[in-house]
Amino acid sequence: MSLINLWVKDGYLSTPDGNSIYFWGFSKSENGPAQLPGPHMVVTQGETVTVNLYNTLSEPVSISFPGQTGVTVEGQPVQPQYSAGRLVSFVNHAEPGDMVSYTFTATHPGTFIYESGTNPHVQIPMGLYGGMVVRPADYDPNVKEYKTAYGTGTDTEFDREYLLIMGEIDPDLHQAVEEGRSYLISKYMPRYWTLNGRCAPDTMLMDNMDHLPHQPYSSMIMAQPGEKVLIRYIGAGIGNHSLHPHGNHTRIVGMDGRLLRNGNVDLSYKRFTVLVGPGQTYDQIYQWDGLGYTPENPIPITLPNLRNMGIGNVGWTMWSGSPYLGVKGDIPKGVTSFNEFGEYYFMLHSHKEPQITNWGEFPGGMMTMIAIYPSLSPDVGILT
């Protein structure tokens, strides 16, 4: 049995352009900060899960669990809540200062979203969402054939694992909520686009940075050549987001918490770009096994001009200056290198140009990197 306690709170997000934005979020402790996205829930197939929600806001709040069946509150199925004939919440909610307890059995392995079921057109964009991973019943991270997304024999083995949750921010909505003003949701216009609650380049910083107390999760993907990397996508916003990594296609093995297989027929498929809709989830395997493992392995291409390797007005680069994995070379003068060990970097980003900016300034938004290292600790890329 898993017991998860969540507190609904408010706080202020940080963006790379210096903005501070009021938001609502879930916290994993009574005294901890609200965070975006909410704390990851990692449970096991067949397990009974109880989530206690404590509401510190001044309006009702709830949690909906799309993809989970048999969700109950006080032994009864969750159901819409009304006040004076008006719909208040799609599921049982907690009034200000109260709590509500949800219980369900995690029936299917896969990736799922959890989000507010109360006034969702406001509360979800304000930040009340998070991700849940259900491990298969036979999951064992210490045995290769049992370290899978959907169970042994499903061809979903992986070496490392990352969860990327997409969101949007319209500062006008957040300011209106902070000031208690009305807001026409038809006027919703995001100016920031986030991966795991951060805008690039903050997406590439490590977990739990001191200056980002409300945005603890990195979006940086790190692996070694040939490793199977399980990348889980969740669309938590209200728009569609077309994401893709450079370096290789991904093989999509699951959608919305369901394995892409019909009996013994494998229905997985490869994609260059994945269009993630609101509430959708994707489980995909990424591998990179290109050239450049050793200095003796030449790369038969013309390298870009050094001056073209700088990114952004600050002139930073994710390139080592060498075409070989594990080797560092010269970079242009005045350019700051973020390359530490001669690793390769491949961009992972939205294909909608406004979504890779911060209020119109590039680079930013829904963008991160995949780093291929010559060697990497086995502790990197473990979702807990």
How would you characterize the overall build of this protein?
There is one protein chain. With 384 residues, the chain is mainly β. Helices cover 3% and strands 35% of the residues. It contains 2 helices and 27 strands. The protein has helices spanning 120-123, 171-179; strands spanning 2-14, 20-27, 41-44, 48-55, 72-73, 76-77, 81-83, 86-89, 99-105, 110-115, 129-135, 160-169, 192-195, 221-223, 229-235, 241-245, 250-255, 258-259, 261-262, 265-266, 269-271, 274-276, 281-286, 316-317, 336-337, 344-350, 367-372. The strands form 8 sheets. Strands 12, 13, 15, 17, 18, 21 and 23 form a 7-stranded mixed β-sheet that branches. The mean pLDDT is 92.
Summarize the structure.
The longest helix has 9 residues.
Please render the helix and strand layout as text.
Layout lengths: L1 E13 L5 E8 L13 E4 L3 E8 L16 E2 L2 E2 L3 E3 L2 E4 L9 E7 L4 E6 L4 H4 L5 E7 L24 E10 L1 H9 L12 E4 L25 E3 L5 E7 L5 E5 L4 E6 L2 E2 L1 E2 L2 E2 L2 E3 L2 E3 L4 E6 L29 E2 L18 E2 L6 E7 L16 E6 L12
Parallel strand pairs: 1-4, 3-11, 12-15, 14-27, 24-25
Antiparallel strand pairs: 1-2, 4-9, 5-6, 7-8, 10-11, 12-13, 15-23, 16-22, 16-26, 17-18, 17-21, 17-23, 19-20, 26-27
